[in-house]
Amino acid sequence: MRRVHVIVDGEVQGVGYRYTMQLVAREAGAAGWVRNRRDGTVEAEVEGTPGQVDEVLAWMASGPPGAQVSSAAVTDTEPTGARGFEVRGTA
């Protein structure tokens, strides 16, 4: 299992990024969460097999139509055994 913490910067709020990411993660079979941050970035943690995580990370690099991702900082972290994928409130 692999778990990553990701901060996505660019035009990523107000374009459906979080809710589309939830669909993408669920379709990939990945677990975790996503939320907006007050600084205009999107923060997420994604957990699953390396292939599942890579699938979600590949989508995160471009996001949904209307998003303009300028960077995605990815940090590996310890898997927690999480299940399901949720959209959280703003941090």
UniProtKB/TrEMBL annotation:
Query: Which residues does the entry assign to the active site, renumbered to this chain?
Result: R18, N36
Residue ranges of every copy of the Acylphosphatase-like domain listed in the record:
3-89
Residues spanning the signal sequence = none
Q: What is its EC number?
A: 3.6.1.7
Catalytic activity field: an acyl phosphate + H2O = a carboxylate + phosphate + H(+)
- EC supergroup of this enzyme: hydrolase
Key words, A-Z? Hydrolase
Q: Where is this region: Disordered?
A: 67-91
**Which InterPro entries does the record cross-reference, listed alphabetically?**
Acylphosphatase, Acylphosphatase-like_dom, Acylphosphatase-like_dom_sf, Acylphosphatase_CS
Segments of skewed composition (Polar residues):
68-78
Gene3D superfamilies reported for this sequence: 3.30.70.100
Q: Give the similarity note.
A: Belongs to the acylphosphatase family.
Give the protein name, as stated in the record. acylphosphatase
Please report the organism this UniProt entry assigns to the protein: Microbacterium helvum
UniProt lineage: Bacteria, Bacillati, Actinomycetota, Actinomycetes, Micrococcales
